[in-house]
């Protein structure tokens, strides 16, 4: 239908790789922030509690506020940080695979609840100092909160998301307060010191710290869990699994092909900062531009024969976004994926799926709720 397709509202779907890349990286395309939302005629969706709460997080901010908050975080997962986190990820992966092995002794097991949802929360939870006994609570409310980030959420979904948002705010506000009262040698304590130096208003500093901590946590969970599940579903096809066991040097390439072939997020929205033209289509200021990651990654002009899953493709993808909003946790997600994959290949030579992945009814965050595996 074209690189830019009119949506049945004040928006456009962008499907081509180059056009999507232009939107993600260009300065003329903004996140749908509060200022834009307040200019809209139909404000019902934007007035929802959960929607407005997420609009104050890093992903929905524009310069200069986005620039300030992102710089305060530094390069979250640079090479040295990834090196420090690697032993922790390896330990958590081994522990979860021990649990999977025990379940597989008796037949089938659900990979999602046993492994792929647990590794991301263990990783980011340990990094931020979240008590392990709180992990189930965080997972539950995160699953419910993301309804507010859907393209067309229903009234009931927004209600579920509103309750989850209030619980997230209560939890992470308390976490910041506890860490302020009892500082540690950890990331969150470092953020507290940074914002105390930057912001003299302690109440405003704590509000920003709450938003940053909450956003980094929930952004690390559903997307990475879906990546780990998709990776297992796609690669445990007998021929691919056996080939990767023989050629483990291609594990990184396999992870990248999973990211290209089946991205955890399918839609990201930007706003036209001014009247412009995109791929030959006139776009008016304030129009919504919906970047379709899956379509872009399957653009045959960028990745020939895009429907084929090819570990040695050496292609490219936009799954982590681009420009100033490039995914903060890209390196961490890849670390978790390649660590888990390497260990599974070594421990489970005959691992295979016994059911297709079951997806939650969503358009944006493609959460997989279950995947049956066996030996």
| Residues in β-strands, percent | 5-15%
Decide which structural class fits the backbone: alpha+beta
| Fraction of residues in helix | 40-55%
Tell me the Rg in angstroms: 21 Å
Distance between the termini: 43 Å
- Secondary structure: number of strands: 12
The number of helices is 16
Overall residue-averaged pLDDT value: 92
Strand order of the largest sheet: 1-2-8-5-3
Give the overall shape, derived from the CA principal axes: globular
Largest sheet features: 5 strands, mixed
Unreliable segments of 5+ consecutive residues: none
Element string (H = helix, E = strand): EEHEHHHHHEHHHHHHHHEEEEHHEEEE
InterPro entries: Cyt_P450, Cyt_P450_B, Cyt_P450_CS, Cyt_P450_sf
Pfam families: p450 (PF00067)
Family: Belongs to the cytochrome P450 family.
Protein name: Cytochrome P450
Reconstruct the topology from this structure.
Layout: E1 4-6, E2 11-14, H1 17-25, E3 29-30, H2 34-38, H3 44-47, H4 49-55, H5 65-73, H6 79-104, E4 109-110, H7 111-116, H8 118-128, H9 135-145, H10 155-181, H11 187-198, H12 202-235, H13 238-246, H14 251-261, E5 267-272, E6 276-278, E7 281-283, E8 288-292, H15 293-297, H16 330-347, E9 352-353, E10 358-359, E11 368-370, E12 372-374
Parallel strand pairs: 2-8
Antiparallel strand pairs: 1-2, 3-5, 4-12, 5-8, 6-7, 9-12, 10-11
Family: Belongs to the cytochrome P450 family.
Protein name: Cytochrome P450
Keywords: Heme, Iron, Metal-binding, Monooxygenase, Oxidoreductase
């Amino acid at each position: 239908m074209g690189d830019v397709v009119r949506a049945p509202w004040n928006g456009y779907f962008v499907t081509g790789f180059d056009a999507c890349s232009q939107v993600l990286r260009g300065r003329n395309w903004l996140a749908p922030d509060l200022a834009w939302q307040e200019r809209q005629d139909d404000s019902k969706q934007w007035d929802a509690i959960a929607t407005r709460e997420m609009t104050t997080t890093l992903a929905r901010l524009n310069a200069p506020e986005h620039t300030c908050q992102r710089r305060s975080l530094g390069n979250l997962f640079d090479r040295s940080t990834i090196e420090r986190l690697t032993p922790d990820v390896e330990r958590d992966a081994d522990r979860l695979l021990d649990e999977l092995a025990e379940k597989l002794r008796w037949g089938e097991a659900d990979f999602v609840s046993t492994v792929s949802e647990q590794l991301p929360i263990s990783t980011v939870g340990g990094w931020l100092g979240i008590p392990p006994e709180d992990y189930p609570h965080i997972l539950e409310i995160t699953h419910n909160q993301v309804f507010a980030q859907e393209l067309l959420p229903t009234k009931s979904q927004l209600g579920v998301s509103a309750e989850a948002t209030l619980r997230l705010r209560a939890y992470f506000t308390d976490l910041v307060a506890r860490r302020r009262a009892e500082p540690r040698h950890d990331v969150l304590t470092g953020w507290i010191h940074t914002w105390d130096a930057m912001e003299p208003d302690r109440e405003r500093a704590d509000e920003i710290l709450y938003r940053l901590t909450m956003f980094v946590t929930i952004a690390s969970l559903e997307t990475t869990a879906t990546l780990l599940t998709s990776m297992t579903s796609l690669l445990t096809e007998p021929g691919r699994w056996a080939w990767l066991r023989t050629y483990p040097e291609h594990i990184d390439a396999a992870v990248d092909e999973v990211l290209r072939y089946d991205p955890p997020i399918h839609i990201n929205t930007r706003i036209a900062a001014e009247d412009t033209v995109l791929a030959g289509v006139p776009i008016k200021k304030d129009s919504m531009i919906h970047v379709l990651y899956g379509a872009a990654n399957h653009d045959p002009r960028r990745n020939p024969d895009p429907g084929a899953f090819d570990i040695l493709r050496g292609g490219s993808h936009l799954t982590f976004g681009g420009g100033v909003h490039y995914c903060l946790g890209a390196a961490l997600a890849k670390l978790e994926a390649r660590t888990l994959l390497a260990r599974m290949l070594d421990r489970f030579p005959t691992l295979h799926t016994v059911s297709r992945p079951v997806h939650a009814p969503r358009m944006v965050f493609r959460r997989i709720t279950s995947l049956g595996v066996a030996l």
